[in-house]
Amino acid sequence: MRFILLVIWFSVVLFAKNILILNSYSIQLAWTKGELEGVLHVLKDNKDLKKYIEFMDTKIFRPTPMRMYNYYYYLKNKYKNIDFDIIITTDDNALNFVRKYKDFPLFKKAKVFFCGVNNLSLVQKLDKKIYTGVFEKKEPMENLKFAKKIKKDLKYVYIVSDASTSGTLVVKQYLDAFKGIKNIKFIVLNKKDLNTVLDKLKDYKKNSVMMLLTPSSYYLNDKHVNYIVASQMISKIYNDPMIVHTDIFVNIPKTNIVGGKVTDALSQGEEVGQKVLEYIKGTPVEKIPYTFEKANKMYLNVKNLEKFGINAYELGYKNAIYVNKPTTFWELYKEWIVSFSAVVAVILVFLVVLAFKNRELRNYNQKIKELNQSLEDRVKKAVEEISKKDQLLAHQTRLAAMGEMIGAIAHQWRQPLNTLAINIQLLPEYVEEHGCDEETLEKFVEKNMDTIFFMSSTIDDFRNFFRDDNKKTLFSIKNALEDTLKLINEQLKSKNINVKIKGDDFEIYGSKTQFQQVLLNLISNSKDAIEENKIEEGEILIEIDSKNKKVSITDNGGGIDEKIIYKIFEPYFTTKDLKGSGIGLYMSKTIIEKYFNGKLEATNVKNGAKFTISFN
Q1: Domains 140-264+290-329 and 469-615 share a fold
Q2: Residue among 478, 479, 487, 587 nearest 527 (CA)
Q3: What is the DSSP string of 405-468?
Q4: What stretch or stretches form a coiled coil here (predicted)?
């Protein structure tokens, strides 16, 4: 098997041919696109060809010697590891470029096939052992006959071009063909500047036609103008028939172009592609002749001819290609008619099937009705059970929070109670030693009343936290946080846990009590994690992100096991054994999602865990 694969690989390497398709212009130009499509269409089934495509874009970038020199070395560097067997060029500039650098390493071994070339003098100059292809030989006399058919009193013919390399060669072809004609005056406007051409045409002769040869390289105020705009601008000045010699110009809208015997880009490409296939099959290049008029076709622009009172179908051209034809009802609404017919056919089939299925459907409807009723009852019962469970969970959460708060009150009261006990114990000794005047008694009472007021304030905070009040208001995040921390501050201090608050405050709409319950759960979780992991210097960082409407609580309590982190928000899931109820995080997530339209997420960070509350 390996041997067979090796043989196949060597065969591909030995017999595969590298082809460079070098285009004079840009792929944006319809003419170049047509030529290239023709070449690729013919060669598409040949698997032994490796094709590389380049565009010189010389309509925009004139082929100056320095540009061509730089372009050669650009290609040489790009394809330094490739030996080209065949080069296909489209139009004159690409062929001229390859001829100039033919003896250079990149092109030296390649056979050259060309299409779209206007320079007919190359027929005598090219080495036929190396070059063959399709000349873009125009048919000026055919176009002159066409001009005489559509303009009976023809006296003048304007030959208009853009002074490009191709355009100048085509102008020469036309003038050479018209040399012996005496009764018609030929006026040449071969200019790069479109304004100059338009000025010359302002007072054009009325008994005339225009032969618009190459309008692709015009410049207007030093900016390139594409052939469509150029043709339309010329048509605004010149109101008589315009004949073209290239297929891409035949059907430009808003012009006076009536057609002509034209070179066809697709045919040019296909013709040169066939020559390449002949060579690959073993025919020497010198045995593959040049092609001239074979790729030319007669195009007639039906609507534009009608503007000048001419019926395109009565001109007597066989095998002409008619463009810009009046749209028939069928052509205009073809897609709609086909679509409508398809829809009608589908509807008819559907109705037939529906008639057969109607009887079964009635029986199914009755069964579905019964099932729906049963399902409604079951869903109602399930909803009631879920509601009861949610209420039970909420109650359990509240009881758990009360347990936390009782512990917090014990911590809060321990120090004040101790102070009161000491003061009362020392009172008799103080009175015995110093006596008891009114001022001393007042100070004693004031000092101990402050302690009692602090303890009373703690009870108020506890009562406010557990007030059954879910009234929605606009409240401050920082204020809710500070009120919550008041309740458990002493617990945190006793565990040597430092709490830091960062960020700018913002307000949200909802129940402050519910939000404080969430904060208490999260801070208590962080406290428990720090305590369980015996962190000597515990830290809880609370960050308020007013810009993104987020609150995050981060601790250094060792984090959450990655194997269970996805389960921590499930009801009754706990890692605290008998100490935990497993409902705190579940209810916290439920409150944030249900009552604040937000999200509660947990992630691990360095040395700990981070809980993030996001509000929409």
Answers
A1: no
A2: 487
A3: HHHHHHHHHHHHHHHHHHHHHHHHHHHHHH---HHHHHHHHHHHHHHHHHHHHHHHHHHHHT--
A4: 354-392
pLDDT at residue 12, as a whole number? 41
323, 334, 337 from 327: Cα distances, Å: 11, 11, 15
- Residue 487 one-letter amino acid: L
Separation in Å, CA 76 to CA 40, 81, 192: 23, 9, 32
Q: Which residue bears the tokens 């995080």?
A: 585
Lowest mean pLDDT among 315-329, 402-416, 566-580: 402-416
Question: For 100-122, what is the mean pLDDT?
Answer: 93
pLDDT in tens, 567-610: 888 877 777 654 555 677 888 888 899 889 999 999 999 999 99
Distant-in-sequence, close-in-space partners of 531: CB < 8 Å, separation ≥ 6: 495, 538
What is the chain's alpha carbon radius of gyration, rounded to the nearest angstrom? 46
Q: pTM for the complete prediction?
A: 0.47
242: left (phi over 0), alpha (psi -120 to 50) or beta: beta
Task: Output 464-468 pairs: Cβ under 8 A, ≥24 positions apart.
Answer: 465/401, 465/405, 465/513, 465/516, 465/517, 465/520, 466/398, 466/401, 466/402, 466/405, 467/513
Closest C-alpha among 528, 604, 532 to residue 563: 604
Q: What is the CATH number of domain 11-135?
A: 3.40.50.2300
β partners of residue 134: 291
Would you identify the CATH topology of the domain 469-615? Heat Shock Protein 90 (3.30.565)
pLDDT of residue 368: 79
CATH architecture for segment(s) 140-264+290-329: 3-Layer(aba) Sandwich (3.40)
Under 8 Å between Cβ of 585 and 570: no
Q: Which two tokens stand for residue 155?
A: 């006296």
Question: Which token pair is 99?
Answer: 């001829």
Q: Identify the residue whose tokens are 């102008």.
A: 171
Q: Are 14 and 248 in contact (CB under 8 A)?
A: no
- Ramachandran sector of residue 64 (left: φ over 0; alpha: ψ -120 to 50; beta: rest): beta
Tell me how far apart the alpha carbons of residues 332 and 414 are, in angstroms, rounded to a whole number.
Answer: 94
Q: Say if residues 405 and 466 touch (Cβ distance below 8 Å).
A: yes
**Residue carrying the six token digits 């996805």:** 566
539: left (phi over 0), alpha (psi -120 to 50) or beta: beta
Instruction: Determine the Cα angle at 129 with ends 127 and 132, to 5°.
Output: 75
Give every CB contact of residue 106 below 8 A, 6+ residues apart in sequence.
72, 75, 76, 79, 84
Distance CA 274, CA 171 (A): 29
